[in-house]
Structure formats: C-alpha cells, structure tokens
Design brief:
- This protein is α/β, with parallel strands linked by helices.
- It has a single domain, classed as TIM Barrel, CATH 3.20.20.
- Helices cover 45% and strands 12% of the residues.
- The protein has a six-stranded parallel β-sheet with strand order 3-4-5-6-7-8. The chain has a two-stranded antiparallel ribbon with strand order 1-2.
- Helix 6 runs parallel beside helix 8.
- The two termini are 30 Å apart.
C-alpha cells in the first residue's frame, strides 16, 4: 500500500473492464492511443472465451467452458487445492497474448506502466454458486483460480515487458451484492477473499480493486488494495455522498500512505455526453466534499486517476472512443495545478 507511482502525472488515465472491438489489431491500436497507461484489453465480442468468468475458469479440472460461453461442472473432479494452469495460447487470452507479443514494437513512447484486470474471487465465487456449488467449495476454488492466474499472467507480462510496473486490478462487480445481509458468507470472509487474491500481486507491482456497483468505501479500503477504482458518487444522491464522507478519514489515510483512487468519472450506463463539463462538475463536487471533510487537496489530486466508470464491452466502438476522449479531457483538468486551489477554496 505504500508504493508511490511518482512517474505518473496526476489524473493519468487507464482503461476499465472490456472493450467492444472484434479486431485484435483495432483493439490494440485503441489501447495504445486512448490512455496514458496502456491497458491490456479483454474482448468478449471477439470471443465469448474472453468474458471475465470464462477466462478465469480455464485450467480448472472439472470445469469446462463451451464455444459460446456455456459452463459445465463435474463436481467429482473438483479439488479446491488443485494446481491451476494458465494457457496463454487458449482463446480466452487472445487479446492478452497479442498485446504481449506486440509490446516491443508498439511501445514507441517507452511507457513505464501497463494496467490489466482479472475477475476477483467474490465475483467468480458467485458465478460458481449459481452453477450449484456450495459456498465452502465455490469461494476457496475461486480464490485458488484467481491467485493462480494472476501469478502466471504477471510472470508472462514481466517476460514480455521487462521490469515495467504492472497495475493489476481485480474486477468485482458482485461485491455490492455480497455485502448485503443474508449473503451465504459474511463480510469479513469477503474482505479476506479479496485480500488473499490481492496478495498474489508482487510487491514491486501495484494492486487495485474495481467495483462499478454501489460503493462500500469501508469494505473496499479494508482489502488493502493500493488503487480503489470506483464510480464518482452521484452528488444528487445523498446516500452516495454520505457513504463516501463517512469514510473520509480512512480515504485520507489511504492517500497519505501512497494509496490511489481511480475515479470512474465518465458514466457508461446511460447517454454519453459530448463534452466533459457534467462529468467534471460531478468529480469536483466529490473531491471538494472530501477536502472539506479533512482530506488533503494535494494528496487527492496527486493520487487520483481518471477512468470510465465501467467496461465498454456492450457498447459500440465509437462510444468507446468518445468515452475515452472525455476521460482524457477530465484528466487534463485534474493535472492542472490550479485544481488544488479550486479544491481548497470550494
């Protein structure tokens, strides 16, 4: 949690979730031109095998994924302690492998970081629950799979990209549901699951946690992720803002000890704006509220990233281009040093 990304400017951008492209070449052209930190893409429209759940199930004995993403489980062959292999040559990792294979020729600007994501153990465990597995099997197996794949993919990135810093973010869209009363496992267990998966990230790299559903700031911060990746709270929703401000002192500690926030500042769940003003207003309202609650304006600006709120796998290519264009415009505003004064004076 104390790792500093001093080589990244305030407000630097990276991608979140999947992309809509069907062409590997077009997707890689996009990721190398649309963000400050290139993001290894996942392309579920190119192949259902690149869906986050299907990707994570590759290599688990007793689990098979069909051509169109259908999943079947043979309980008799499941072992929560099994060694799980990561086959980078499988269709599930088509975009991942292509990024690594072409890294040297595409890295003309000599980037110092790359970002990639993988499904988290809570979301993978929830998928296994839906397939009929008991919690005592589903979640330990999910943790084993996530840790095994993260370690293997981290090694592959190092082989292809050298000692570049990897930002490795676990994607947990099911986290909000898992924190609701009555869920099959408790909150402490959920936090331990995520912390255990994040521990697979090498100390020289940067761990992150993304949740695009309702944000439980306390639970997310408790996982120990260096980067917490969350949508910008809706200022018109008093509950959203209140939940963030209740955690203001913990957010302050997180930032003061080298932690970061990746603000999902460009909404992807409705009409996409043509200019950044509405998104900028929402981001500034949230950041100003934190400063008024005692968070350092300088820490907040220096340790913020700007991203889309969620993945864009269900959108058109043109929408993805517009979203990332807006993110870059917001990024420039965060990078402007006058932003600190604005945060302090608001």
């Amino acid at each position: 949690m104390t790792t500093e990304l001093t080589h990244e400017r305030p407000g630097a951008t990276f991608g979140v979730g999947s992309l809509p492209h069907r062409s590997l070449t077009e997707a890689l052209d996009f990721v190398w031109s649309s963000t400050d930190i290139p993001t290894i893409p996942s392309l579920p429209r190119r192949s259902p095998a690149e869906g986050m759940i299907a990707q994570a199930l590759v290599g688990i004995e007793g689990v098979s994924v069909g051509q169109y993403g259908g999943i079947s489980v043979d309980v008799a062959h499941l072992d929560v302690d099994q060694f799980i292999t990561t086959d980078l040559h499988s269709d599930a990792y088509g975009a991942f492998k292509e990024f690594l294979d072409t890294f040297a020729e595409r890295n003309t600007s000599k980037v110092t970081s790359v970002k990639w994501q993988f499904v988290g153990p809570v979301t993978l465990g929830a998928a296994l629950l839906r397939l009929g597995l008991e919690p005592g099997i589903a979640f330990p197996l999910a943790l084993q799979a996530v840790r095994s794949h993260v370690v293997a993919l981290e090694e592959e990135v190092t082989k292809a990209c050298g000692d570049i810093t990897q930002i490795i973010v676990l994607d947990e869209p099911s986290l909000a549901e898992a924190l609701e009363p009555g869920y099959p496992v408790g909150i402490e267990y959920i936090i331990d699951l995520i912390s255990g998966a994040l521990a697979a990230v090498e100390p020289r790299n940067i761990s992150g946690l993304h949740c695009c559903a309702r944000t439980d700031w306390g639970a997310i911060l408790a996982t120990g992720a260096n980067i917490i990746s969350v949508p910008v709270p809706n200022a018109s929703n008093e509950e959203d803002m209140a939940e963030m401000l209740v955690a203001a002192s913990r957010i302050s500690d997180h930032l003061a000890h080298g932690g970061h926030i990746a603000w999902g500042a460009v909404r992807t769940d409705g009409p996409i704006s043509v200019n950044p003003e509405r998104s900028w207003k929402a981001l500034m309202e949230s950041m100003c509220a934190l400063v008024q609650a005692g968070v350092s304006a300088d820490d907040l600006r220096r340790h913020s990233y700007v991203t889309p709120a969620c993945g864009l796998g269900t959108h058109a290519d043109g929408v993805a281009e517009r979203v990332f264009s807006l993110a870059q415009k917001l990024s420039a505003k965060v990078a402007d040093e006058s932003t600190v004064s604005r945060l302090t004076m608001s």
